[in-house]
Amino acid sequence: MKIRIITALIFALIANSSNAALEVTITKKDENTFPIAVSKFKLIGKDAQNKDISKIIRDDLNRSGRFDVFIPDAIIEKYQTDFWKTKGIEALVIGSIEQKSSKIYQLSVSLYDIYSNAELFTHSASVDISGFRKISHQISDDIYEALLGENGSFNTLLTYITVTKNAKGEKTYQLNISDSDAKNAESRIQQKSPMLSPVWSPERRYKDKKIAFVSFKNARSEVYIWYPFVSKKLQKLPHFGGIVSSPSWHPSGKKLLMTMSYKGNKDIYSYNLTNNRFTRLTRHPSIDTEANYSPDGNSIVFTSNRSGQTQIHIKNLTTGAIKRITKIGKYNAKASYSPDGKHLALVHRTDDDYRIAMFDLKNQELNIMSNGILDESPHFSPNGDMLIYSSNQRGKGVLSVISVRGNRAHQLSSQNAEVREPNWSIKLKR
Amino acid sequence: MQNLKTPITLLLLSISLSACFVDKNAAAIIEDQKPIDAIIGGQSSFEWKQNQDSFSKLPAMPEQQRQAAVAQLATSGVDSVLYFDYDTAKISPAAISFINKHAQFMRKYPAIRLRLEGHTDPRGTRDYNLALGENRALVVKSAMEKSGKNIANKIQIISYGEEKSQSGTDESNYNRDRRVQFIYK
C-alpha cells in the first residue's frame, strides 16, 4: 500500500534564527543547593581561545536549581584540597581544551569531591568542533549524576512553537528545535497557519530523531512527521477528512497515536509507520483525544468526555479494559506519563483556572503544581525530575519548568514571540 | 497486503519562507482491534483514498452571484455566526430557527456551498478544543440536513479549536470565541 509522502523543502532559510533563541530566567532555587566551583578551562592553541565550554556547564548546573555555581578568578589547572575546603565549596570541575587540527580538539575534564578528597572522574576525548555543545551537556549530566546520584536532563532537545504578530495583526507560526538550554535554536518551518503539538520521537541518535506535529497548512488539522537532522522531507499522515490531532510516539518510535475523526466521531488510532496500518484503540461516540503511551507501551492514557465530564482514562492494551482515572474536579485533560510510569502530568481545572497537576497513579492523589490561569501542555523532563508546560505571563505565552517537588523553577521566554507547546526529548546517546 | 514505500525525492527547491508540500495520491489501511466494525464501513481493514472531499469537487457558484446572494442574506438580518455555551456543542430551539434560515438560503441557491468553521474559547487544552470545535460545526450541519435535503454534500466542516481565538485571556470576550461561522463559497 502506498503512503502519502510529502516531500518538502524547508530550504533552510534559518529564518530569524537569532530571534528563535529563548531567554532563560531562573525563578526559584532549591534551599539546599550544592556548592560547586567550575573553573574556566585551560585553552591551548590559537583557535581554542574562544572554545571555553565551562560556561555551558555552569549554566546547566545553575538552571537545574540544585547547584550554587562559583567561578574561580583564575583558571584552576590542578586540584588542591585545603584551599577549597576553606571556601565552603564541596566539588570542583577543571578542564582543558587543546587544538589538534583545524576541527579536532582534545578535551579533558575532571570532577573532584572536596570533602572526601577524591577524584570522581576524568574524561578525555577527541572532539569535533561541531560536537562541543553536545559533549558539554553530557559532562553536565555526568557531574549531576556523580554528585546527586540521579540522572540529568541536559543532553536533550526541546521543541516548541513560537507565534509572532506583525503590525497588521497577522500571525506567523514557527516550529522550533533547540538544546535543553534553549541554545542552538533553529526554526526552519514557518507558516501563516497554526501549528501545534510537536513531539520528539524516542530515538537517542540525532539522525533517527523525528518530530510529529499538527499543521493547518491545508486549512485543516493534519499530522506531519519531520526529520530535522537528516533530510528536508515532511511526511503527511493519511486521515479521514475530519480533525486529526494529538500525535504521540510509542516507546519504540515505530508507532504513533493520534486522534482522528471518522464521520465526526473522534477516537484514538495507532498508526504503524512500518506497514502504514492504523489500529483503532477507542470506540465511543464521545470525544476521545490526547492519547499517550505508558513507558512500557502496554497502556494508553487519554482524555474523554464519555462520562459527561472531561476526564482522564486509561486503556490497558492487553486486556482492552478502559478505566476512568480522575475523579477530582470537573475537567482533567492532556495527561502524559512520568518516565517511571508512576505519575501523570495533566491539565486540571480549579474553580476558573486551568493549572498543571500531577496525579499519583498508586495513591490516586492529585497535586496542583502551577498557579496560572491558562496553563497547558505539561510534559515530564526526561529524568522525571521536572515538568515543562506553557503558561501565560501578563498576556504573553512563555514556557515554565518546575521541579516535581515544587522547589525549583525556571522560565523560557522570547522578547517578541509567544512561546507555547513545549516538548522535551529523552536523553541523546553519548 | 504488500507495502510499497513511495520513493522520497526532493521535488522542488525554493527560497520561500514556508515549507512547500507536494502531495501524491495515496491510500492506507485501517485495521480495527476487533473484527467487523459497523462504524468503519463493515470491514475490519480497508483502504481509502485521500481527497474524497466531494465538497471541493463541486463547481463553485460564480463569484458575483454568490456575493450578491450572501449580501442579501445579511441584509435580511440573518447573521453568519452562531454562539455556544462553555464546553458544549448543544444548540437552543432559537438557534435551530436561525439554522433553518441558512438551510432555506441554500435551497434557494442550489449552486452555493457552505463551510462551517467550529471555534472554541482558549480555556482547556488545544487538542480537546479542536474536537469540541468540530462537534459544534457537526451539530449545525446535522440540523441543516434535517431542514433541507440534498445539501449535506455541499457543506464542509472545519475545526480550528482555539487557534483562532480573538479574546486572548480577556474573559469578557470568551463568549464571542465559542462559535460556528457560516462561510459561503
Distance between the termini of chain B: 40 Å
Number of strands of chain A: 32
The SS-based structural class of chain B is alpha+beta
CATH architecture grouping of the domain at 57-184 in chain B: 2-Layer Sandwich
- Using CB atoms under 8 Å apart, which protein chain pair has the greatest interface? A-B, 75 and 65 residues
Anisotropy-based shape of chain A: globular
Count of domains of chain A: 2
Mind summarizing the main beta sheet of chain B?
A: 4 strands, mixed
Low-pLDDT stretches of chain A are: 1-18
Number of helical regions of chain A? 4
CATH architecture of the largest domain in chain A: 6 Propeller
Distance between the termini of chain A: 37 Å
Q: Which whole number gives the mean pLDDT of chain A?
A: 91
* E-strand count of chain B: 7
| Average pLDDT for all residues of chain B | 75
Please provide a written account of the structure:
The complex is a heterodimer of chains A (430) and B (185). By secondary structure, chain A is mainly beta. Chain A has helices spanning 17-20, 54-63, 81-85, 132-148; strands at residues 7-9, 23-28, 34-38, 42-44, 67-70, 91-99, 104-113, 118-128, 157-165, 171-179, 186-191, 195-200, 211-215, 222-226, 234-236, 244-249, 255-262, 265-272, 277-280, 288-293, 299-304, 311-316, 322-324, 332-337, 343-349, 354-360, 365-368, 376-380, 386-393, 396-403, 409-413, 418-424. Chain A folds into 2 domains: 17-21 and 156-424, TolB, C-terminal domain (Neuraminidase, 6 Propeller); 33-148, 3-Layer(aba) Sandwich (Rossmann fold). In chain A, the strands form 7 sheets. In chain A, strands 3, 4, 5, 6, 7 and 8 form a 6-stranded mixed sheet that branches. In chain A, helix 2 (54-63) packs across helix 4 (132-148). The two termini of chain A are 37 Å apart. Residues 1-18 of chain A have low confidence and may be disordered. By secondary structure, chain B is α+β, with helices and mostly antiparallel strands. Chain B has a domain at 57-184: OmpA-like domain (60s Ribosomal Protein L30, Chain: A, 2-Layer Sandwich). Chain B has a 4-stranded mixed sheet. Chain B has a two-stranded antiparallel ribbon with strand order 2-3. Chain B starts with 19 loop residues before the first strand and ends with a strand. Strand 19 (277-280) of chain A pairs parallel with strand 2 (27-32) of chain B.
